[in-house]
Amino acid sequence: MHLFWFVPSFGDESRLGDPSTKVEPTLDHLTAVAVAAEEAGFEGMLVPTGEGCHDAWMVAASLAQRTSSIRFLVAFRPGFVLPPVAARMAASLDGFTGGRLLLNVVTGGHPHELAKDGDVGTDHGARYRRTEEFLDVVLRSWHEKGWSHDGEFFQVEGGGIAQQPVSTPHPRIYLGGASDRAMEAAARYADVYLMWGEPVERMADRAAAAKARAEELAARGERRAPGPLEVGTRFQIVCRETDEQARSDAEDIVGSISDEYRRRLRDHADRTDSVGQARQNELRSDDADGEWLTDVLWNGFARARLGASVALVGSGASIGRTLRTYQDIGIDTFILSGYRHDEEARRVGSYLVPFVSSFLG
What we know:
The chain has helices at residues 27-40, 56-64, 83-96, 111-116, 124-143, 180-189, 200-219, 243-253, 259-269, 275-282, 316-328, 341-351, 353-356; strands at residues 2-6, 44-47, 71-76, 101-105, 147-150, 155-159, 173-176, 192-196, 230-240, 297-298, 311-315, 331-337. The protein is α/β, with parallel strands linked by helices. It has one domain (2-359): TIM Barrel (Alpha-Beta Barrel). The strands form 2 sheets. Strands 1-2-3-4-7-8-9-12 form an 8-stranded parallel beta barrel, surrounded by 8 helices. Strands 5-6 form a two-stranded antiparallel ribbon. Helix 3 crosses helix 5.
């Protein structure tokens, strides 16, 4: 089992929607989160990308100087930087951190947000074709010299970079998405296929299908990653000493969200072409009792945020048992986040890590 934490590079807060609890994403606060996560026993940290986030490469490079062992899963959008340049950036950061770099390929599911960064008019299918071509060029940049590439999105002459990654054979690649195209891209290129958290029965078939597809590609010599495909997921978490305290605190975290904000958030969520967001939308409920998907899985964060909204809520023992059910269906990487991120990292370290320490990779 692999536990990852989250870098709140867009800001942090104790109660969502309550400005009095807001914490700006200063380097001091992000450092406090990273140090808390490292001390709690997390293996790595997801550094997100998006219009509200500080640049993930810069954040990871800065936090690596203030930590000693935790790894940084840097999220980036393929094609926003030309792939040989991205390959050089990754090799440099991997070397400077002693092999602590991991790469999270984020194809993107909100066209209006992508357009703000200059990616205008690229539809879902084109984004995945670009992702696959991008990864082809990055892999060749790391491992080959003197090649040329003339593709749909990129052209390279005399390819190959001087900087080589420290990680062998290169930094591990994580790729997420709920569409068939995303699964295909992950099966071909990724070390780890990521899905947003859902009830275990909704994820079991998808995890098995991704691994089976990777095995098919490997048998034909078409899988570009060096080993079998692993599967991971992303959850919010509210971990406390008791289940009752966790449930009370979870409700308090979203207690300041107005009905008007919730309505606008849903309108925004319904405009995306992200299959993953559509699956999250299916789990929404207007009834507080309906937000409890199981006795541990709670979807109350959907009132306040997009993306991965399902949370693990309970004592360390309850959450630990739930994680084992996901591990039993082939999911063993868990990327967690909670409010505030420095405080919740310490709670997870106190209440959950002792229950799963024998399963940590």
